[in-house]
Amino acid sequence: MKINMLMDISHLQNKRQWLVITDSLNEYQPPSDHDNETADTLYGTDNNNNGIRDDYKQRIIQSELPEHAQKLAFAAGRIYTTTIHVGRSADEISTDLARYTMQNLINVYRCKLITAQQNNGHTWKESWFYNTVDRLEAKFLIQNALSKIAGEETEYQFPDNPCAEILKERLFVSS
Q1: Within 13 Å of residue 166, how many CA atoms lie on the same side as its CB?
Q2: How far from chain centre, in Å, is Cα 49?
Q3: How many CB atoms neighbour CB 38 within 10 A?
Q4: Tens digits of per-residue pLDDT, 129-174?
């Protein structure tokens, strides 16, 4: 699978802007505990250990999102962080954890759509969190792995208020 890292419309025709993403469960190799530089780049800095990377938190604070939308963006950030950290042990993920994580990501996505509707199209962007090529690649590979582990037969829930669901979610897998 290939995705395009669009910064400009002209990048559609530029083959160097296309990032190849493999379709194999075994292709995602999280950085080892001994590869601090790669891990720091992927996981980023969270100085207060609240499950929200500092640069993402700062981006939300500097945005023009209303306070309630910022709280939702912070909750989404904790879920994005958890997803990245779950990927650290990609070969040890249980079916239940894969389904749970995918359900949280579905709730985040649906909440983001609702937030945009309520705020004249303004909401947080996933790209504020997945803001490097390494993070974007990890996102696609981890979500692909989780989806395969969860299985095609998985039936996900679509709660009436997905925003309330992500606000309740406090799971954070520490490093």
Answers
A1: 32
A2: 17
A3: 13
A4: 999 988 988 898 899 889 999 998 999 999 999 999 999 976 554 4
